TrEMBL record:
Name of the protein described by the UniProt record: Vomeronasal type-2 receptor 116-like
Gene encoding the protein: LOC102003062
Homology family: Belongs to the G-protein coupled receptor 3 family.
Lineage, uppermost ranks: Eukaryota, Metazoa, Chordata, Craniata, Vertebrata
The keyword Manganese appears for this protein: no
Predominant subcellular localization, coarse grouping: membrane
Length: 767
């Protein structure tokens, strides 16, 4: 086998290199002898006896050997070590293994004479999961050989996968038999594109071949360095292991090894029967019948001529461990002999070989403890069994996660049928704007994507929770970014602001025109009959009522917020108290005709006019208490209008606001009641009916305002208050003064004293 030949050559190279080293074991030459450990219980024990005694008939005697061995180098597996370990331990004979590191063999109580030089595989699981994350593979299969090492690897990789949110589509623990391997893989691998294979033993090349005969080729296989390429020369282009990714222990190049291999021939090392047979097979040699010597070989043949599938010139992990094992024994022996030489009784005396058990303290100092770094290799297959091994990158467990792996993606040759980096996921990633929701009874990697709720975003892929935007920001339509809200308010430039402003100014001008009309016709009966002074006060207050909404439009500030409510409360109180005074005046005017002087005195003294300052003073008191306790202030509303922060005036104390509004309602209700009772009093210019209608309109507007006000927010709420002010003021203006303006402008004949007298004397019942 090519690997065995390279292992042998690495061993010989290390021996010769040490013997040429003047500073390591000077004046001492290392020797060696080979023993085959055939996989048979009795054969293993027999070869161990031969190694220890020099013969296999009489134990406990050293016969037939001129020199004593100081250590055993073996590639023994755990099962073999349990057989030869106790035998070697009887003699305290050091055993140095160069096979894959096995945690079971680290028990110094059970294996006190066994030393391992291979690097640990403690970071292999982390490296493989890091590779999964590098390519965003979150849905992978696991095929792991049975045994304690496989179970340990399964535990390690499941822990790393859980920590990094990589899910196992299936987990199969398989034996070394072809049948169980095939049953494990034929049905399970269909759902995934990436499969991790963990090899524990070296006899799985046959399994590799059988997997290749039964599996599809468009899979990505990731495995450890115990995997060996099948060099039999079959159709490798269709091999499912074409493009396999292998984690191999990183090691430095050994200077001079390739030159040594190029010069190694069976003529130089005739005792190497494996090399003789290998040479005869690959260089068209023939064997002589007499002494089995090679003849008729290709001239100047070298192992460097062979393709990589026949012989790989690059040192393998196992060969590197053999090289280190030889040096470990050499350094331990050197330190032991150096210590003996330094002892006083030994000075100027000839150095003699000590017993093998004395080597133990020095071998313990040579064991490597650090986890190994890994090279990530990619195997390319070509026709006729040619195979190329390409280094893609490295993994180091000593660097922070995310920076511990470097892979050259452009160099990767994927499996047959894959033209670009494959995907292996249970569910496609959730794009920004969506969040993951797990599927019931499924693995964490299997999920559905649902849109983020209103005003929440997901700015990364595969987010589990959406993030709520701050109050000053709002989610864009894609819900992957928060945008800054623009500041807005009921401005004069808005269409709604323009409409309300024009309406308020127009009604104020109209009211001023009515006032001018009344002043111009102040001596006419219709103006004089309805208390001319109170009409002037009412019209002036209505002008201010119509101008009051201008305080609600525009960017709010502290002054306007306070003036909005105080101005609104006071001017409307003046207007309603004036209506109440006019109503009482009408009632008193008709009561004057009755006997008694009290009513006359009240009417002549102008007592009804005192209602206006009295009611206004009460409203001013309420407003003063409001402003002194919890006055209105500037506030923001970030929720009513999407994408905007509305600046508005907060009422401060809602209780005070409703007290002001309730007081206005009480005045309006009293005015309505008095006017309603006086509606049928006989008089040509009796305005009690109009006062009744005006109060009915006023109350209807503000009763409707309350529920609508509470159901709106933002600029609409401000606009609703402005509209209520304008509507109630327009109701007063229209119901009280429009009929009078009609008579003044269009029916002047009804506005003369003579017409009124004739109508009164001739009509019987006055109208």
């Amino acid at each position: 086998m090519p690997n065995n030949n390279q292992n042998y050559l690495a061993f010989i190279f290390a021996i010769e290199e040490i013997n040429k080293n003047l500073h390591l074991l000077p004046n001492i030459s290392l020797g060696y002898e080979f023993h085959n450990l055939i996989h048979s219980h009795w054969r293993i024990l027999e070869n161990s006896f031969i190694l220890l005694t020099g013969q296999h008939e009489i134990p406990n005697y050293m016969c037939g050997t001129e020199s004593q061995s100081v250590a055993v180098l073996s590639e023994t597996l755990w099962g073999t070590s349990t057989q030869i370990g106790p035998l070697l331990e009887l003699y305290k004979f050091p055993q140095v293994t160069f096979g894959a590191f096995d945690t079971m063999l680290t028990d110094s109580g059970q294996y006190p004479s066994l030393y391992q030089v291979a690097p640990k595989d403690a970071s292999l699981a982390l490296g493989m999961v890091s590779l999964m994350l590098h390519f965003s593979w979150t849905w992978v299969g696991l095929l792991i050989t049975e045994g304690h090492k496989g179970l340990q690897f399964l535990s390690d990789i499941r822990e790393e996968m859980d920590r990094n949110k990589v899910c196992a589509a299936f987990v199969k623990m398989v034996s070394t038999t072809v049948v169980s391997y095939l049953s494990a893989t034929k049905t399970e691998t269909a759902s995934v594109n990436v499969v991790i294979i963990y090899y524990d033993i070296d006899i799985l090349n046959d399994v590799n071949y059988n997997i290749g005969q039964h599996l599809v080729t468009w899979k990505v296989w990731v495995t450890n360095s115990q995997w060996h390429a099948d060099m039999a020369g079959r159709n490798f282009i269709l091999d499912p292991f074409h493009g396999i990714l292998v984690f191999s222990h990183h090691h430095e190049e050994i200077s001079g090894f390739q030159n040594f291999v190029q010069e190694a021939t069976p003529f130089k090392y005739p005792e190497d029967t494996y090399l003789v047979m290998y040479w005869s097979k690959n260089f068209r040699c023939s064997l002589s019948d007499s002494d089995c010597a090679l003849k008729n070989c290709t001239p100047n043949a070298s192992l460097a001529w062979l393709p990589p599938n026949k012989f790989d010139m690059a040192m393998s992990d196992e060969s590197y461990s053999i090289y280190n094992a030889v040096y470990a024994v050499a350094h331990a022996l050197h330190e032991m002999l150096f210590e003996e030489v330094q002892m006083p009784p030994m000075r100027n005396r000839e150095v003699t070989m000590s017993s093998p058990w004395q080597l133990h303290p020095f071998l313990k100092n040579t064991q490597r403890k650090l986890d190994s770094e890994y090279d990530i290799l990619n195997f390319w297959n070509f026709p006729e069994g040619l195979r190329l091994k390409v280094k893609l990158g490295t993994f180091s467990p000593h660097i922070l996660l995310g920076q511990n792996m470097s892979v050259s993606k452009d160099m990767i040759e994927w499996a047959t049928g894959i033209t670009q980096t494959p995907r292996s996921v249970c569910s496609e990633s959730c794009n920004p704007g969506f969040r993951k929701t797990s599927r019931e009874g499924k693995a964490a990697c299997c999920f559905d994507c649902i849109p983020c709720p209103e005003n929440e975003i997901a700015n990364q892929t595969d987010m589990e929770q959406c993030m709520k935007c701050p109050d000053q920001q709002y989610a864009n339509p894609q819900k992957d970014n928060c945008l800054q809200k623009s500041v807005t308010f009921l401005a004069y430039e808005d269409s709604l602001g323009k409409a309300l402003t024009c309406t308020a100014v127009s009604l104020a001008i109209l009211t001023a025109a009515v006032l001018e009309l009344f002043v111009k016709h102040q001596d006419t009966p219709i103006v004089k009959a309805n208390n001319r002074a109170l009409s002037y006060v009412l019209l002036i207050s209505l002008i201010f009522c119509f101008l009051c909404p201008l305080l609600f439009i525009g960017r709010p500030n502290t002054a306007t917020c306070i003036l909005q409510q105080t101005t609104f409360g006071v001017v409307f109180t003046v207007a309603i108290s004036t209506v109440l005074a006019k109503t009482i005046t009408v009632v008193l005017a008709f009561k004057v005709t009755a006997p008694g002087r009290r009513m006359r005195k009240l009417l002549v003294s102008g007592a009804p006019n005192s209602i206006i300052p009295t009611c206004s003073l009460i409203q001013l008191t309420l407003c003063g208490i409001w402003m002194g306790t919890n006055p209105p202030y500037i506030d923001t509303d970030a929720h009513s209008e999407h994408g905007h922060i509305i600046i508005l005036c907060n009422k401060g104390s809602l209780t005070a606001f409703y007290c002001v509004l309730g007081y206005l309602g009480s005045l309006a209700l009293v005015s309505f009641t008095v006017a309603f009772l006086a509606r049928n009093l006989p008089d040509t210019f009796n305005e009690a009916k109009f006062l009744t209608f005006s109060m009915l309109v006023f109350c209807s507007v503000w009763v409707t305002f309350l529920p609508v006000y509470h159901s709106t927010k933002g600029k609409v709420m401000v606009a609703m208050e402005v509209f209520s002010i304008l509507a109630s003021s327009a109701g007063l203006l229209g119901c009280i003064f429009v009929p009078k303006c009609y008579i003044i402008l269009l029916r002047p004949d009804r506005n003369s004293l003579g017409t009124i007298r004739n109508k009164t004397h001739s009509g019987g019942k006055p109208s």
